[in-house]
Amino acid sequence: MSISEGLQGKWLPVVTSIILLLTFWGLVRYALPKFLLNPPQDCQDNPYKQLHLLNSNGIFNIFAMLRRGAVRRSLILTSNHPNKFTNKSQKKIEAKGMLDYLSAEQRELKKTRKLYGFFHPYCNAGGGGEKVLWKAVETTLNYDENNLVIIYTGDNDVDGETILKNVNKTFDYQLDTGRIVFIFLNYRWLVDDKTWSHFTLLGQAIGSMILTAEAVLKCPPDIWCDTMGYPFGYPVVHILIRIPVLAYTHYPIISTDMLKKLKSQAPSMKNKIKYYYWKLFMFWYKLVGRYVTISMTNSTWTFNHVNKIWSHFTSPLQSKIVYPPCSSEKLATQEDIPRKNQAVILAQFRPEKRHKLIIESYANFLKEKDETALPPKLIFIGSTRSQLDKDYVATLEKYCFEDLKIPQSLIEFLTDCPYDEIKKILNESTFGINSMWNEHFGIAVVEYLASGLIPLVHASAGPLLDIVVPWDIVANKQMEQGDSTFKTGFFFTDNSDPDYSPTKKYPTLAELFNRVCSLTTEEKFAISERGKCCALTKFSDMAFDEAWDGVLDTLTENTSLDNNKKDR
After folding, report:
1. Contacts of 201 by beta carbon, 8 Å cutoff, 6+ apart
2. Cα 94 to chain center, whole Å?
3. Which residue numbers delimit the ALG11 mannosyltransferase N-terminal domain (predicted)?
4. 41, 144, 401, 411: which one has the fewest Cβ atoms less than 10 Å from its Cβ?
5. How far is CA 430 from CA 112, 354, 380, 384, 514, in A?
């Protein structure tokens, strides 16, 4: 049989199908972004037509529904009042006052406007992740007056104005509200862990893809900024609109540590299934890294893990450590406030914070301490989010005072304290304790340093690698290695650590209590000053501004970063 006869026979349908599929994929790849980013040709220069399309009832018109996001984007980019084009209101947007458009000359200048889309479905939560979001928003707006910001959120119980008031109240950030547009999402429940009682990782991953698609279709940006950690949405962004992706990772969704820990557990069918499920999930997690333009992480520990996972797809230029804004300059005080012999434990009341370890270690210290050692009072401060947390605090109190018979004068529990009271306690205390194992960063430890406390922290992750580091106070820089003259705090380990090794490099917390009780006033002051200097230099809001500006510089100066990825 000749080749031509073969092609006309059984292979012809296969070859034809492949050609058709490649043609279809080519059309999707290059036509879809243009379709979703640009309004229809007949209304590109007519804002009134665009507004009519935005207000139209497109429930039964798929074409109109898909173009509505492009129309909203166009109106935002060319309006003097971008913030008015939120999708919160169910009422039709009136033309009067809304279409205060730029002159032809101004429009030419405004072609340099860029829409930064910050994907943060829980933007009103008021935690550390939200602090990163809003500081990044502030810095992005200050970087260039032509930058505009979209916030993609699922906080449908409030409006944008209320969210921005909460930001100002919680973080004291001054934002140009006129350049911030809120796009409210309807499918946030798909990324809520309560939705997925089984296969939570997989469910949330698929849910984040759907939520990302909703965000893009409602208003596509020029740059996608994920500040909450939903990496499985990156391929969706790439396929739909092919724009740069900035990823800020607080901690990896799954890590090699998790796999090793699971593998070391007693063999069982359940553990085997779980292990291979996680392995497959890790493989998927690796693949999404190819769609990241610039990867940012909040600490060395997170950087090492994420870089190991995504190393095949990101170059050193694209991977950066950007420490979160800790407002250390607002905590530091120059006043010479007398310090009390007390240690603060600033942590949410949750079991993973290992409050019980601190209490047990303290009880052992009280039994075995030197006669001359004066025990510091322990003050546990934290928030209680639910009745479960309150019950946990009650359990800790019972464990302290009834089971271990620790005198009530030596331990105090304070729940849901006002920030001013916390700040006052920090400024008059001597030590700060953090016992969590492998905490990816540890903002409470930064607050200890900035407030002049001497940190006693677990020797792992963020506190070990980034925060309680040797510091040269004269040169105002971090030392690679250091003796006691550069010390900013102390470390401990415990035999309950998942990766505990009997090597006696670090003492236990009970032993450490005994050691720090022998410090002289001069030694305490020197350690405190070095720690304060470190916190102000590495973890201030200004330091975050500079780092984020550097990321935007990289994005601006290396436009080929994303173009290279488009060819993959």
Report:
1. 253, 254, 278, 281
2. 37
3. 114-310
4. 41
5. 52, 21, 14, 25, 15
